[in-house]
Automatic annotation (TrEMBL):
This is Peptidase. Keywords: Hydrolase, Metal-binding, Zinc. It comes from Thermomonas fusca. It holds the Pfam family AstE_AspA_cat. Residues 30-307 form the Peptidase M14 domain. GO terms for molecular function: hydrolase activity, acting on ester bonds; metallocarboxypeptidase activity; zinc ion binding.
Amino acid sequence: MHAQTFPAIGTPGQPWGDTEIAQWRALQARKRSYADEVLTRIDALREHFDVARYGEVDCGADGRYTLFSLRSRGWDAALPVAVVTGGVHGYETSGVHGALQFAERHAAGYAGRANVLIAPCVSPWAYERIHRWNAQALDPNRNFHAASLAAESAALWALLHSLGDRVLVHIDLHETTDSDETEFRPALAARDGKPFEPGTIPDGFYLCADSARPEPAFQQAINAEVAKVTHIAPADPDGTIIGSPVVAPGVIEYDCRALGLCAGITDARFVTTTEVYPDSPRANPQQCNDAQAAAVRAALDFALAHR
């Protein structure tokens, strides 16, 4: 059982309005630097990638955040496209740094085989505040659709749709943390005026496949590679992970497009969402980054071999 740490905001049973959102936002303090921890690494990659600004998020008194992508140098329209996204939820640290680690250490190995596009930190305001939501108390990963009110989601939606039908594979890097149960799920219940229903946090790595494009062998290939780095999450006694039925070891499914998830943006044949567990006593931050990078490599290798 994880102790709840989310402060009481609003009236139980009533959804938040502007007053409650303002009260919540006033509690969100900057804890780390997007410029120092992310942009410096992106800048260091300019020799090897085309670095492009694909959007800007205006967070009022908290400033403006420019969104950047890394694109393969010498982009070839005849090649398939591989998309890697991280930091859709800003608090999920290895999503950001795993994407950057892949760019630094492995992306060059796909030159001439695929065009690689990496958006390593989709939600920089949330990255700095180690939070799931954006500055408007919206979850970016429930807001990837054409009329999105989440600026981070709208910018990435436009970027990926500009790629047309050439996207072969999209891997979106996430974490499931103890704070999901202590802070973010209670906050969601309070925001929406619903009762909080306690859940469980899986101990280990798992994948969320798209139920519309499950590609079981693809998911299994990723887990097999990640298992060399960290452990795969077992199912709960009821055969679920985070309440969803386990369809294969370490794999559950969501309807990504219907839920407005990042993995549902494109029509790529091969899509998945990684979930690393950084709070496990059997893992450390570098191991989590290694697991994310391993997942990306396995995803690209499988997709290119089976296209």
